[in-house]
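Encode chain A's predicted structure.
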Amino acid sequence: MSRLRTISLGLIGLTILISAWFYPQLPAQVPSHWDINGTVDGWQTPLESALFVPIICVVFMTILWIAGRLDPRPSIVAVVDWVVVIMLVFFVVLQVTIMLIGTGNHIPMERIIMLGMAGLFAGIGRAMRDVEPNGFVGIRTFWTMTNPQVWRETHLLAYRTMVISALITIVVACLPIPPAWLFGAGVSSILIGVFWPMIFAYRRYHQLTDGTSPSSRS
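Encoded structure for chain A:
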């Protein structure tokens, strides 16, 4: 078993230990969902709260590990395993936050979510830098899948834009602004980080194909 997969199993074990530690301290109702304004609008029983994140982690990891077998190249498997680790770290942070809030601690969940999403986004962006063309992970558009140069340049750009978007989201999460504004600004930054490379791929593909077409050389 690879080192990344061992880490993944360890992180799932950590979510179980966190739940076991906090479970006896949880009240009859535990906050489980927050609206765009940061107000609790959903509740779970202590058992549901303790089991929810570990189960989600196991399901998520299993699905990605199985899906990753669609392309058994070591480089692609390594990218999938890295994404799984990054997602599980996010869920561990989420589990700790939920448990702390459930036991009476005042923690701004909306800011934790934004910071967690920023870390998740930066980690996935790092994986984009060196990912090879494949049918499972990456920015899989017509323009990237049909032109290896466009794929390479698009994913290098995606690495940069996703990391920059993550840093912007971290800064925004630390600003004293209302939760709804925080959510809007953070999500907008992340969407720009995703869609800008797609726009680049479209333009770069046509730049390369138009520049090498017979009609352009005549």
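The chain has two domains: 1-107, 108-211.
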